[in-house]
Design a protein that fits this description.
Blueprint lengths: L18 E2 L4 E2 L7 H12 L4 E5 L8 E7 L2 E7 L5 E5 L14 E3 L3 E2 L6 E2 L5 E3 L23 E5 L2 E5 L7 H17 L4 E3 L4 E5 L3 H7 L6 H4 L1 H5 L14 E5 L5 E5 L12 H5 L7 E4 L3 E4 L4 E7 L5 E10 L4 H14 L5 H15 L11 E2 L9 E3 L5 E5 L4 H15 L3 H7 L9
The structure holds FE2/S2 (inorganic) cluster and fe (ii) ion.
């Protein structure tokens, strides 16, 4: 697939034909093809465990939070029995949007079109004219809201999947996913600050995801942060000192890593990574980035092949003094997010990269993801984790695209379980 590829003459084909894992090449078609995008919604987002929100956002009965699974909008609710529900935000009568608020408190969700009313658990509890107009022809029990097939949480982070055949959340996360979330969960005494920052960038969602493993770009893309002293990159990047963890189903962690002294004595993940100025970045496949030592979470929600919504959740210790809270807020809005200095740089790059994938001639030239390929070895950490200790590389990115192709080509969860590449050992 080097140089002039077959891509220009190809309408479709297995996803694996777009990702050349041998040579570390990725066909640009996957960033702008409509059919591929629709297949992603079906085969990745409707199948995966998607991050919904943190438990602190739906603490009490009636609390709700609006989010998405692919292009499907869902309402995460805490019902009167204390259970968390993930409900499709679409009335069963004519499909109107039920809830328009991004988060809040409600007793029920009444459709603004004809007034069908749904409980916090999604049951249809009220229908105007139920007796007089329907005259016994509507069974309310059959017309509750669509909902996630499975909902579960790990250390306070709520996930949901639309696929009843998906493995349980713990199995799905595997070691790499759990280590990633542990960085954010800390002692579990955390909460999300009110106000999720949201903005849209004109890029394909995968380019936003692959950038989170990218420790090659900061000195160039974010040079202004460094020179203005906003954020001194040189002290934090450790480009010659990096670690990578690759996990089943596409989860990965990559970034700065300097072994703390006495690591051998470390007893848990926090001890192992906790003394680093910046920890490596985990991605929970497909689209949850645990950023900045787990103080922020970023979702990359697809809105078509050329548009991505970027959401930022800011996490703080529950007992953090007000002044510290304010500082965290300031940092959160100035670093990433719509007003963030760094995201301005990144977003522009991703948008331009996406734009160039539309052209027929450009599509003949695959993108290069082979930095470090074949040069590194997986070793056992003192904690028993499998990891790579190396310099700046593109292992995390290539792993993501390899997993992407496996998800796209599998007809079912059973097939994905059987055919996915397990976390590697030996040379990578
Ligand atoms: S569309 Fe919701 S009640 Fe008719
Ligand atoms: Fe960046």
């Amino acid at each position: 697939m080097n140089q002039a590829t077959k891509a220009s003459a190809r309408d479709a084909g297995p996803a694996s034909s777009y990702v050349d894992t041998e040579n570390g090449l990725v066909d640009r078609t996957i960033f702008s093809d409509e059919a591929i995008y629709h297949r992603e919604l079906e085969r990745i987002f409707a199948r995966a465990w998607n991050f919904m929100c943190h438990e602190s956002q739906v603490k009490e009965a009636g609390d709700f939070f609006l989010t998405r699974i692919g292009e499907d909008q869902v309402i995460v609710t805490r019902d009167k029995k204390g259970a968390v529900n993930v409900l499709l935000n679409s009335c069963r009568h004519r499909g109107n949007t039920l809830c328009r608020a991004e988060q809040g408190k409600a007793r029920s969700f009444m459709c603004p079109y004809h007034g069908w009313n749904y409980g916090l658990d999604g049951k249809l509890v009220g229908v105007p004219g139920y007796e007089e107009f329907y005259r016994g022809g509507l069974d309310r029990d059959e017309w509750g809201l669509g909902h996630a097939a499975q909902v579960d949480s790990y250390k306070g982070f709520i996930f949901a999947t639309m696929d009843p055949d998906a493995p349980g959340l713990l199995e799905y996360l595997g070691e790499t996913g759990r280590v990633g979330l542990d960085i954010a969960a800390k002692d579990e005494n955390i909460e999300v600050l009110p106000g999720i920052q949201k903005n849209r960038i004109g890029c394909n969602w995968k380019l936003a995801v692959d950038n989170l493993f990218d420790w090659y770009h900061p000195t160039i893309s974010h040079a202004s942060s460094d020179r203005s002293d906003f954020f001194p990159l040189q002290d934090t990047l450790y480009q010659m000192n990096q670690m990578v963890m690759l996990g089943d189903y596409g989860h990965a962690i990559a970034g700065p890593f300097v072994k703390p002294e006495g690591e051998d004595a470390a007893s848990d993940v926090e001890n192992t990574y906790g003394t680093q100025p910046i920890m490596p970045h985990p991605n929970i496949f497909p689209n949850l980035w645990i950023a900045l030592n787990g103080t922020q979470l970023s979702l990359r929600l697809p809105r078509g092949p050329f548009e991505t919504e970027i959401w930022w959740f800011t996490l703080v210790q529950k007992d953090l003094p007000a002044e510290e809270r304010r500082k965290t807020q300031l940092f959160a809005t100035h670093f990433f997010g719509p007003g963030g200095l760094l995201e301005q740089d990144d977003g522009e790059n991703w948008a331009h990269s996406t734009r160039a994938t539309k052209g027929i001639a450009n599509r003949r030239y695959p993108l290069h993801y082979a930095m470090g390929k074949g040069k590194d070895k997986v070793v056992d950490s003192p904690l028993g984790h499998k990891r790579v200790e190396t310099v700046v590389n593109e292992h995390g990115q290539l792993w993501t695209y390899k997993a992407w192709a496996e998800w796209m080509d599998a007809d079912s969860w059973d097939e994905l379980k059987q055919n996915h590449t397990p976390a590697p050992t030996g040379r990578i």
